[in-house]
Amino acid sequence: MTPTLQSIETECVHYAKARNELAEAVDNLNEQIEALKRKHLPGIRREVAKAAQLHACLKADIEANPDLFTKPRTHTFHGIKVGFEKGKGRVEFDDPDKVVERIHKQFTYANGKLSAAGELLLDVKETPNKTELKNLTAAELRQLGCSLVAAGDQVVIKPTDSEVDKTVAALLKDATTEAQ
């Protein structure tokens, strides 16, 4: 049977009804989620504050006693890894254009072509490539007008367990960042 405008209109009635029921179900779910959030969020906030305070105390104790973490530099107690680890560090510079200029100066061949090493240090839009710059020595970074920051020993306090801990870690990170 070939559809007519009347049969298509009837299908639209059924489809519109189904969409409205779906929208009501989603609204109902969202209302229940919001009610659960309102119910449980104060308790979660209290637990986050308590965990953040304990984290700060633990960090202070670790920082005050680095001699406890010489060999090995980290220990794991009750699923929490603590101690010191080498910071990944980040490259900083004030003027990216000057760093690009210095990279060209130091990594250009006599024929005027930029060396492969120089190309790695630059992104296509000619900004310094921080990932590759991190591979240079401190002296080489200084020559380019860069410095490596936060690369020294840093306190480690991290759980060694599951997915739920990623959410807890995110909440704690927010709480400990706000406290600083």
Could you walk me through the main structural features you see in this protein, from its secondary elements to its overall organization?
- The chain has 180 residues and is α+β, with helices and mostly antiparallel strands.
- The chain has 2 domains: 5-69 and 163-179, no CATH class; 90-149, no CATH class.
- Helix content is 57%, strand content 13%.
- The protein is built from 6 helices and 5 strands, in the order H-E-E-E-H-H-H-H-E-E-H.
- It has a 3-stranded antiparallel beta sheet with strand order 1-2-5, with helices on one face. It has a two-stranded antiparallel ribbon with strand order 3-4.
- Helix 1 packs across helix 6.
- The longest helix has 60 residues, at 5-64.
- It is flat, with a radius of gyration of 28 Å.
- The mean pLDDT is 85.
Core attributes:
2 domains; three-stranded antiparallel β-sheet; two-stranded antiparallel ribbon; 180 residues; 5 strands; alpha+beta
Characterize this entry briefly.
The chain contains six helices and five strands, in the order H-E-E-E-H-H-H-H-E-E-H.
* Share of residues in strands: 5-15%
Q: What is the number of helical segments per DSSP (H or I, 4+ residues)?
A: 6
Major sheet: arrangement of strands? 1-2-5
Between the first and last Cα atoms, what is the distance in angstroms?
A: 72 Å
In total, the number of strands is 5
Number of domains: 2
The dominant shape is flat
Radius of gyration: 28 Å
What is the structural class? alpha+beta
How confident is the prediction overall: mean pLDDT? 85
Secondary structure: helix percent? 55-70%
SSE pattern, N- to C-terminal: HEEEHHHHEEH
Low-pLDDT sequence parts: none
